Amino acid sequence: MATLQKSKTIIVSNRLPVRIVKEDDKLTFTPSEGGLATGLGSIYKQGDNIWLGWPGAVLSNKKEETKTENELKEQNMAPVFLTDEDIELYYEGFSNETLWPNFHYFNQFSEFKEEYWESYKKVNQKFADQILKNANPNDIIWIHDYQLLLLPAMIRAERPDISIGFFLHIPFPSYESFRLLPWRRELLVGMLGADFLGFHTYDDTRHFLSSVSRLAGVGNEHGNINYNNRQIMADALPMGIDYDKYAETAAAPETLEREVRYRTSIGTEKLILSIDRLDYSKGIPQRLRAFQKLLDRHPEYLEQVSMLMVVVPSRDQVGKYKELKEEIDLLVGRINGQYSRLSWTPIHYFYRSYPLHALSAFYRMAHVCLVSPMRDGMNLVCKEFIASKLDKKGVLVLSEMAGASKELSDALLVNPNNSEQMVEAIREALEMEESEQVQRMTVMQNTIKRYNIYSWVDLFMNRLEIVKKAQRSLTTKLLDDQSSQALNTTYKKSKKPLIFLDYDGTLKGFYGDPQAARPDPELYDIVNGLTKRAHVVIISGRDKETLGEWFKSSKVDLIGEHGVWLRAHKEEWHTITNLTDVWKASTREVLEGYVARTPGSFVEEKDYSLVWHYRKVETGLGELRTRELTSHLKYLASNQNLQVLEGDMVVEIKSTEINKGRAARNWMKRYEGADFIMAVGDDWTDEDTFKAMPKDAYTIKVGSSNSAAKFSVNGFEDVRALLKGMIG
Fold it and tell me: pTM (2 decimals)?
């Protein structure tokens, strides 16, 4: 008997947490100190877990590749080797010239080149091939960031049941920005290969769900997406830092020694700290202009306040970045030239990277930390500043366009496009009383201490496991001959059987005209045959008049409009609860507006619900309109106790108090003591029925989608065959 392989976690990112440096014929391996590497170290260094990615250098021969593989294997890493062309077209090209500007709302910089896209696909496939070499069916794969958006679906195609998580470390843009990408649908479908998708903020999650709905034609319910018969979850999980690491570094002797040395060089003036990578999304020129305006408006700060600006080099040979560097150099030169004194420099500007102890000394020295990106996924600099403030003195001025602003509301929040507001915020920060500084800093430190990098990792893995459990709970077993036989035997032994049957898609196929789906002679024979020894309940979305007419000669109980109307055989129709239809008039106008714009669609009106049908609508247009309509209806329904349901080529809006499950429970009370219960249905409205059934009931889903039902059959013909077998 084969032994079950132990599951492992495979972390995948564009870059490994190590950098290879080639010097002559020698390869040296330098570990990364980034926040992600720190947080995920608790995972990839354990057991058989591995981190997979590009090692940071283009290797020229097989010997170098083999040496690299062996070296990295000892550190629980596996390389994906890229060529110079891959780096130019996939990384510098599509990732940073196409996706980066689009996701950060700088669409004027986006390059839509076919060769970039082809390379992006090719390299994502390289990553997929390497993962598949290392992955077993019960492994967990956690993919990171915008360079690998296609990867989840590529893995899913080969390993349908494997656990895949994805986290986006940059903002996800609004639909209006994302739709500009020529390959927008392919990117979304790629991401939907994951089971759980994490984003820094609720806004990012909302934008993703909106694009999925409007561009991929896939709806969601509270962040839960049903795609390709698989439940997917999208949620906001803001990334933290290793709080203790930064607090301990701030107290380290080397940091204190550096602080004394730097402070001696600079003098006693108050410091405004700015630390950024060279990028147009960081708003560095706007920051400099705001500082210039501050000095111009408030001459009392001359010789009293300086800005310490660190810009970390990045892609400065690329045109736009080169221009940005030149603009920053000119602004710094102009401000220093205009305001400098022999004993005072307004801006201490450094274009280089610094080690952690130096940065920690800067954080300790700074009175104000100015973090004002035009757009940023999270921004960890502001969190590092807070963790380093052991005396709790200091003020954070933070752009509301950074993801961190959603957590750090005790910072002074600014719109980086509003220079007047920025000037005033800097002035307020410089003048803030120490007691208020301590109060604000204490709250922010408690926040980032609690939501640190380790809790972020744990939370992500926990959410992924929750999704997989939900998927497994909805997995249905195809009703085979053995199960059918067991069902038949149990049914024939029973004394008081109770059977719930949906109608459309379950007992009868779908038709363009709903009235054309009336029962045929075979169906009447099946229903009448069952009623000879069982209580049969037809539980349908159909209106009560239609159901009453179609089954007037059958000894069946009827539940219409998904549970609005109930009628036992030979009794009158009634409702479970007091319902109102005052909402229908305004909603009907909305639906009729969509009918006017969508040839082939029509509205069906029931007593307490409205249904928009689009079975006859041109393929693609119907799905597009459905996404628009569903969003519109959910907005209308949010404060009216209404719910929006998507069925097979229909969208229905009705009271939240109505569902098939509630009606089914009512009927089970009526026939208390039933010793055989079966429920059969085909769409999401029937899930409420399945969930209402006792554990020993036979629940059967028609179709292959995930369901709370225990069994599934392929189509209504199989349902009829099953019911015939029960009669015979």
Answer: 0.78
